[in-house]
Amino acid sequence: MAEPDRQAHAILERDSRISKADKIVALLPDLDLASCRRILEIGCGSGVISSRLAEVAPNAEVHAVDVKDNRIEFAGYHFSIVEGTHLPFPDHHFDLVISNHVIEHVGNHEAQLEHLREIARVLLPAGVGYLAVPNKWRLVEPHYRLPLLSWLPQSIADAWVRRTRRGQYYDCVPLSARSAERLFDEGHLLHQDITIPALRATLDIEHPHSPVTPWVRRFVPDGLLKLTMPVIPTLIYRLKRQPA
């Protein structure tokens, strides 16, 4: 049976997307953006991240794709509508590929695996991928704002979404760290877990005025943050193609 259409869940707020783009750049310190020739954002939503990347990598040709056009920012990049997970680009084409909170929207295990295989296909041998996905075991599901929603069997999650009048069914498939890393192996991608530095970067760049930020920066070591990994809100990985 075919899956029903999934919602876009695009965040259409400019300032938060600019901060998100700056965080992504900060988490790839070994990538020389000035020398990048081509950058791809999959699932660009508002288009703000792609536009920001075009600003910070002025020599790069920036491409963005999505299954729907929800853009509020149009400058600096090339946009294409796609169907499903297929990417309309040749093999070994991009220095940087970004999948920011996309994989949970593409469908079931096979669709998620195809999403990763397409990333591996279009990456240059020395290219870098950035992937963020909500943690299945986070305490509050981020798209519907319901506690423990992603913990539940599909039928119960669907019923809860309907009962709270937030949709007809639960259309996201977040991943646990274990399931994400198994998928990377199947998709022929080497992965580096950068969740903890990403958490620090999120506080510093996206929430600089929060009272929590200086407290975490000064008093909370990485070892203590790692204890929160089972329920940490977002898992973030740096990806590379597996050698042939």
Automatic annotation (TrEMBL):
Give the record's GO biological process terms. methylation
The record's listing under CDD domains reads: AdoMet_MTases
Keywords (A to Z) from UniProt? Methyltransferase, Transferase
Q: Name one Pfam family in it.
A: Methyltransf_11
Question: What SUPFAM superfamilies does the record tag this protein with?
Answer: S-adenosyl-L-methionine-dependent methyltransferases (SSF53335)
| Residue span(s) of domain Methyltransferase type | 40-128
Residue intervals passing through the bilayer? none
Superkingdom of source: Bacteria
An example of a GO molecular function for this protein is: S-adenosylmethionine-dependent methyltransferase activity
Its recorded name reads Methyltransferase domain-containing protein
At the highest ranks, the source species' classification is:
Bacteria, Pseudomonadati, Pseudomonadota, Gammaproteobacteria, Lysobacterales
